[in-house]
């Protein structure tokens, strides 16, 4: 029995090491905004992310002590952030800018449920194309290819600014905040959610945490992470901000998304298999990064920050 067991274990170890080496070699390091665009073009065109995550490429909101479907949790997240940020106080017809709109999931809810006129921008041409395909003609949404660090809108063009999980891709967080607040009218509402690290100056990372952070940056085209408090200070000091900024850590509400995203592939195997063997390999390739994200958020190395302020 042992004569068969030892070679089998050795083979499994070799395969696992090969898998991890390939995962490490094929990183998606941030070089410029074009690398972000290329990554999202690829994720959109192969349709794997959409098949697994649906039209919302962001984490979900899981109410305490309540079971909720993975995709419903994503819709729930949109409504929770709208309510928490005060965006729902705006009248129907208000102009909203969705910064980092993906394939338009949040934009369509903001338009259809709240009656807003929504402009969604993303740096990925493939995402804009897909967002337009998914959006009915009567839905008051339009989508544009645009860099969030160089918004082509006049000052005060919007009544509300919405941005979910886009800031982690920005290499200049101050400019990111400035562009959004510049285009927000005085008294308008900013609603933002993002992946943040804990304050690494106050609580420096261990050697293991440094390794994990390096992987999280290099696997999904992130230039750098910033703490919730650091970004809060950027918003407070901006000349176009009212100076009253409220931020919270929503880790407890969003953390179940990570394991749920893996289980979703098990619940919907045809979503992967119907795209061919390449899709299966691509989905498996993302598992280590998802597991590292889960670990980092649970340990408090990473934090899910939500921010609200007025123009």
Structural notes for this entry:
- This protein has a 7-stranded mixed sheet with strand order 3-2-1-4-5-7-6, with helices on both faces.
- By secondary structure, the chain is of the alpha/beta class.
- Strand 2 (117-122), helix 6 and strand 3 (141-145) form a beta-alpha-beta unit.
- It has 13 helices and 7 strands.
- It has one domain (29-310): Vaccinia Virus protein VP39 (Rossmann fold), CATH 3.40.50.
Radius of gyration: 20 Å
The best one-word shape is globular
| Strand segment tally | 7
Structural class: alpha/beta
Mean pLDDT across every amino acid position = 91
Count helical runs: 13
Q: Identify low-pLDDT runs.
A: none
CATH superfamily: Vaccinia Virus protein VP39
Portion in beta strands: 15-25%
Question: What are the defining features of this structure?
Answer:
single chain, about 300 residues, alpha/beta, Rossmann fold, 7-stranded mixed beta sheet, 7 strands, about 50% helix, globular
Short description:
With 311 residues, the protein is α/β, with parallel strands linked by helices. The protein has helices at residues 2-25, 33-45, 48-53, 70-85, 105-112, 125-134, 173-183, 207-219, 228-237, 251-254, 256-267, 269-273, 277-299, and strands at 95-99, 117-122, 141-145, 158-164, 184-197, 245-249, 302-310. It is 50% helix and 16% strand.
Secondary structure elements and pairings:
Blueprint: H1 2-25, H2 33-45, H3 48-53, H4 70-85, E1 95-99, H5 105-112, E2 117-122, H6 125-134, E3 141-145, E4 158-164, H7 173-183, E5 184-197, H8 207-219, H9 228-237, E6 245-249, H10 251-254, H11 256-267, H12 269-273, H13 277-299, E7 302-310
Parallel strand pairs: 1-2, 1-4, 2-3, 4-5
Antiparallel strand pairs: 5-7, 6-7
């Amino acid at each position: 029995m042992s004569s068969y067991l030892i070679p089998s274990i050795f083979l499994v170890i070799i395969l696992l090491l090969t898998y991890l080496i390939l995962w490490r070699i094929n990183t998606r390091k941030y070089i410029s905004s074009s690398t972000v665009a290329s990554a999202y073009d690829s994720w959109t065109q192969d349709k794997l992310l959409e098949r697994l995550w649906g039209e919302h490429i962001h984490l979900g909101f899981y109410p305490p002590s309540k079971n909720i479907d993975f995709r419903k949790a994503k819709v729930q997240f949109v409504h929770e952030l709208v309510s928490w940020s005060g965006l729902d106080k705006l009248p129907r017809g208000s102009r909203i800018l969705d910064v980092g709109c993906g394939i338009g999931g949040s934009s369509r809810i903001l338009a259809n449920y709240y009656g807003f006129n929504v402009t969604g921008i993303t740096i990925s041409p493939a995402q804009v194309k897909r967002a337009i395909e998914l959006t009915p003609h009567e839905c008051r949404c339009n989508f544009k290819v645009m860099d969030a660090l160089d918004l082509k809108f006049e000052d005060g063009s919007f009544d509300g600014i919405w941005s979910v999980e886009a800031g982690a891709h920005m290499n200049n967080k101050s400019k990111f905040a400035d562009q959004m607040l510049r285009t927000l009218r005085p008294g308008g509402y900013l609603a933002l959610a993002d992946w943040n690290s804990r304050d690494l100056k106050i609580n420096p990372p261990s050697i293991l945490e440094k390794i994990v952070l390096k992987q999280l940056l290099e696997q999904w085209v992130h230039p750098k992470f910033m703490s919730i408090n650091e970004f809060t200070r950027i918003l407070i000091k901006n000349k176009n901000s009212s100076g009253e900024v409220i931020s919270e850590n929503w880790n407890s509400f969003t953390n179940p998304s990570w394991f749920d995203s893996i289980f979703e592939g098990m619940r919907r195997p045809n979503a992967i298999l119907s795209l061919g063997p390449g899709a299966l390999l691509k989905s498996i390739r993302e598992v280590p990064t998802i597991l590292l994200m889960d670990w980092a958020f649970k340990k408090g190395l990473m934090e899910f920050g939500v921010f609200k302020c007025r123009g």
